[in-house]
């Protein structure tokens, strides 16, 4: 769950979706902790988070090995040894926490998996999020992953592909970056940050961007997302009791949720306004 505080008021700002850096951080941590483990038992406290009956869910995954932990856009896919997948989407508030074998599960988890290591993988606040059981392992065969745009960090996502995508669009650039059918996995925080990096105003029309601006934006998208992953994104909820990575990118935010504070480049106050129904944060001097 992404929770930031407004620097000018100190109020918590909730309700942002986790984006690629946050989900990729979780994926990498899960890969280290649960990949190769066997699901011994399952406890379900919120059946509405599932897409099948609880008994069916438990019977299908109990005793199965987690053979792969992958990510597509904002979703995590746990591939099981019986050619099924668990598709996890945290949505607004959800998160996963590992409790080691010597720890007691705290809080009110929606779903808990006990692994053969003795560790527990607990999913919290899946009020809008879900864990869907799918009889498939290929992304193309999982309906929850259909209709998504390219992954901005994949090797196949080249400058040429980005220019081609932009050539077909005319709307404002910030909402476009957040359109999951255009690019997969970018939301409000990183659309703001990449537009500041490329010095582009959030309300600019995609069709009006110069080729140089488009290329700069491409490189900023990849650079910002890569750096944010390295530093653990901006999530507040820790993955485990010994997690020192998660949330490490928050001090490096340049414009997001810094309304009224000085730009790190020119010292002009950061401004905010509604663009495409979402809050856009930008520097009125650096961005044009």
How are the elements arranged and paired?
Blueprint (H helix, E strand, L loop, with lengths): L1 E4 L6 E5 L3 H14 L5 E6 L9 H8 L4 E7 L2 E6 L4 E5 L5 E5 L11 E5 L4 E5 L5 E5 L24 H8 L6 H6 L9 H10 L13 H20 L40 E5 L2 E5 L6
Antiparallel strand pairs: 1-2, 3-8, 4-5, 5-6, 6-10, 7-9, 8-9, 11-12
Helix pairs in contact: 1-6, 3-6, 5-6
Descriptive notes:
Keywords: DNA damage, DNA repair, DNA-binding, Glycosidase, Hydrolase, Lyase, Metal-binding, Multifunctional enzyme, Zinc, Zinc-finger. Belongs to the FPG family. Residues 254-288 form the FPG-type domain. Its EC number is 3.2.2.23, 4.2.99.18. Pfam families: Fapy_DNA_glyco (PF01149), H2TH (PF06831), zf-FPG_IleRS (PF06827). The protein is of the alpha+beta class and 288 residues long. It has two domains: 34-145, N-terminal domain of MutM-like DNA repair proteins (Alpha-Beta Barrel); 159-282, Orthogonal Bundle (Helicase, Ruva Protein, domain 3). The protein contains six helices and twelve strands. The protein has helices at 20-33, 54-61, 159-166, 173-178, 188-197, 211-230; strands spanning 2-5, 12-16, 39-44, 66-72, 75-80, 85-89, 95-99, 111-115, 120-124, 130-134, 271-275, 278-282. A four-stranded antiparallel sheet has the order 3-8-9-7, covered by helices on one side. Strands 4-5-6-10 form a four-stranded antiparallel sheet, covered by helices on one side. Helix 5 (188-197) crosses helix 6 (211-230). The radius of gyration is 20 Å and the shape is globular.
């Amino acid at each position: 769950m992404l929770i930031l505080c407004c620097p000018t008021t100190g109020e918590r700002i909730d309700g942002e979706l986790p984006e690629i850096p946050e989900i990729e951080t979780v994926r990498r941590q899960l890969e280290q902790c649960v990949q190769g483990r066997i699901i011994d038992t399952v406890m379900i406290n919120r059946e509405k988070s599932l897409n099948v009956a609880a008994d069916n869910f438990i019977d299908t995954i109990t005793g199965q090995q987690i053979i792969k932990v992958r990510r597509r856009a904002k979703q995590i896919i746990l591939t099981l040894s019986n050619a099924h997948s668990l598709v996890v989407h945290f949505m607004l508030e959800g998160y996963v926490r590992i409790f080691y074998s010597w720890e007691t599960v705290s809080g009110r988890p929606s779903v808990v998996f006990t692994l053969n290591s003795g560790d527990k993988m607990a999913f919290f606040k899946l009020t809008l999020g879900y864990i869907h059981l799918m009889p498939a392992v290929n992304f193309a065969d999982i309906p929850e992953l259909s209709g998504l745009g390219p992954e901005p960090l994949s090797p196949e996502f080249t400058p040429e592909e980005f220019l081609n995508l932009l050539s077909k669009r005319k709307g404002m650039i910030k909402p476009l970056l957040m359109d999951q059918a255009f690019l997969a996995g970018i939301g409000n925080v990183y659309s703001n940050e990449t537009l500041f990096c490329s010095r582009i105003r959030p309300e600019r029309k995609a069709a009006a961007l110069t080729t140089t601006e488009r290329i700069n934006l491409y490189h900023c998208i990849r650079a910002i997302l890569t750096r944010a992953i390295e530093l653990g994104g901006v999530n507040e909820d820790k993955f485990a009791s010994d997690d020192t990575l998660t949330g490490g990118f928050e001090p490096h935010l340049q414009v997001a949720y810094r309304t009224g504070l000085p730009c790190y480049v020119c010292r002009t106050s950061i401004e905010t306004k509604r663009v495409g129904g979402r809050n856009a944060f930008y520097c009125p001097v650096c961005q044009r």
